[in-house]
Specification:
The complex is a heterodimer.
Chain A (H helix, E strand, L loop, with lengths): L7 E6 L2 E6 L4 H7 L23 E4 L6 E2 L10 E3 L3 H17 L14 H8 L23 E3 L9 H10 L4 E4 L6 E4 L16 H5 L5 E3 L11 H12 L10
Chain B lengths: L3 H14 L5 E6 L2 H5 L2 H16 L3 E6 L11 E5 L4 E4 L4 H14 L7 E2 L4 H4 L17 H6 L4 H9 L2 H11 L11 H10 L6 E6 L8 H8 L1 H15 L3 E6 L4 H16 L15 E6 L9 H8 L23 E5 H13 L1 H5 L9 E8 L5 E6 L4 H8 L9 E6 L5 E4 L9 H6 L8 E6 L4 H15 L5 H18 L5 H17 L3 H5 L2 H9 L1 H8 L5
Parallel strand pairs in B: 1-2, 6-7, 6-9, 7-8, 10-14
Antiparallel strand pairs in B: 1-3, 3-4, 4-5, 10-11, 12-13, 12-14
Helix pairs in contact in B: 3-4, 7-11, 7-14, 8-9, 8-11, 10-11, 10-12, 11-14, 18-19, 18-22, 19-20
Classes of the chains: A alpha+beta, B alpha/beta.
Amino acid sequence: MMRERRRTLTVSFDGVEVDAYVGESVLQCARRHQVDIPSLCFLEGLSVYGGCRVCVIEVAEDLRLRPACATTVAADMEVSTDSPRLKAYRKAIVELLFAEGNHVCAVCVSNGNCELQDVAVHVGMDHVRYDQRSPMRAIDASHPKYLFDPNRCILCTRCVRVCDEIEGAHVWDVGSRGQQAVLTTDLNQPWGTSTSCTWCGKCVAVCPTGSLSYQGTAVGEMHHDPKMIVRLAAARRGEWIDPEEYR
Amino acid sequence: MATPIDLHEVAEREREARFRTPWRTKVCNSTACASAGSGAVLGAMRNLVDEEMALDVTVVPTGCMGLCSAGPMVRVLRRGGGEHAYGRVDSEVAVQVLRSHVEHDQPVADHELDDEMPFFARQERIVLANGGIIDPDRIESYVAHGGYSALEKALTTMTPAEVLEQIRLSRIRGRGGAGYPAANKWSLLAAADGDTKYVVANGDEGDPGAYMDRTIMEDDPHRLLEGLSLAAYATGAGHAYIYVRAEYPRAVERLDRAIRVARRNRLLGRRILDTDFDLTIEVRIGAGAFVCGEETALMASIEGRRGTPRLRPPYPTEHGLWGHPTMINNVETLANIPAIVGRGGEWFASIGTPDSTGTKVFALAGDIVNTGLIEVPMGTTLRDIVEEIGGGIAGGRPFKAAQTGGPSGGCIPAEYLDTPVDYDSLRELGSIMGSGGLIVMDDRQRMPDVAKFFMEFSMDESCGKCTPCRAGTVQMHHLLDKITSGTGSYRDVRDLENLCAVVRDTSLCGLGQSAPNPVLSTLHYFKSEYDELIGVDDA
């Protein structure tokens, strides 16, 4: 196995020393050692985006927070993954995401199979203290096979990256800015009229919420498969991956 | 003017031509005065001169004279000495002034401004040295006032390392806001590997009420070109960009013209001034996003992509434009460079305070008598700026607060008026130097409203990439809206305080990290106003 030959160094997570591969990110290292750092925009195999800010960590005495996905491990790095401050911040960020869109689990296709929901449970979010913004966002159901509901989108841009980096079609991108920021297909035309979309479905596979789904799925029926991209990307790099780990 | 010798000749010729007529008048034709009608003044003067006084008077349009609240401004100069400044001039007054001077050698008392007033006398102009003096569209005018002599000196007598050493000695800090030592950035780029390196002038000035960089680009474009050329020479860059926001069409026009003229005169392009130094400069225009002042977003915009910041590291000096080492400097920083190289880093370091050297240009705005552009040594107290140079609060009302640093800065209350204005003192007070916007407020302003104004700005300008800034500024604005409309509660203020910490500590780029500053500083210094609005009795 290739991995065994990689150079290692030692880092610590909340006081527990573990081995880390040179060049890997704090988040990757933590995942290998079952240290749970929640994240949303990160997906192994895609470029690092660093936008969701859920995976923030503290390093030693440095007061500045860093995203674990974009922080490379260094020798004897002391990482804190769940200090009271981090817990409070993560919870606030998840609440901000819930208040920003229209995330109503009870009527969502991804209910029960949703990464946003999982993260909310993980950070212990029992209510949203901010006022719901309840934006009016039009659903794009023009594609014969898939459906895009921007109300459930958290702008993690996994779909943008997978379409660009793995499929090579670059159908998706982000338009407008701030609270108006929204995913667009082609030059902001209905998805169904897109001439660049290959219908490959990778964007649907990686979506962490119920924003991208198959047409005709009912509440709780939508199962995403982001690991599919992890396997695909690893295979393209010519890397061996543990089938158990990436099932 | 292809060789250094010609540069001196041009200067000499220009100086000789200066008093071909016994009188010269200068009309401020910068954006503020132009909007107050300086175009008509210029036209009226030219008509009169053409018809009656062609042998007596030369009329010159110039850049900003500084006192924008008294615009349009006019100066009348007499051969052999004597200069009079006039404010609030219209076409009729202009004709009257000209006649009075030329025919009777008498100034017109009504509109005359006192050149000894603190607004003019207390300033120390390095960056704005040519403001109100040269004609921005004529390179000869810039050369006659010492322009391009620093570049000539550097190219013919100094090595790049020696230029860099002068920057180090000057201890100049970046004028864009954060105050990072410029020499550190320069050395990183100079030491970076690679044949292709870029230098970028950041002219995406977006703070409300600030127009320092616009004035430099519009009224002294060659100074920026010379500063950029020196930066490129010292760091080994062969190509430079000037990133100008789209809202500054005049700056773009003047820079484009300046670049064309400089190239024609072998001050840009290949073998500059007959040395081995090559440099091309291009202007790139923004698309209306405040966040593009952030250096990684700026680079994305120059490359033609969506202007969003990316994670640092890697820093631009390692991985910049199209992957090549790149250095981004603020326009005002670069405009200081010709003076530093020309007169030496030690001279520059002797101005200001030990940790904040040189001068700073401020755009004075708000409830103050003299609004306009000023340049003062670092360390000048806020009181001097407001009461002396600014002439105090309009209408004699009490001073309440000064806002520095725009949407990333904070409000400084009256008890800190004697604070010296430098990078570190302002930071201690919870504000920042920022790019130089200085908004003065009298006792009628409610501070939560001020915080809400800036939060609305940050909310509208958030790029939407990271959650805390995109969604957090919206919630903060919403809470401030509730509080200022009188429907807020103590819980809203508590949530607001918590959100400030979240957004400050977890946002991706400087815009988000500093967006809570106006709220934090007003909560700190003016808590009682929030309490009053939510109905909490402090007593």
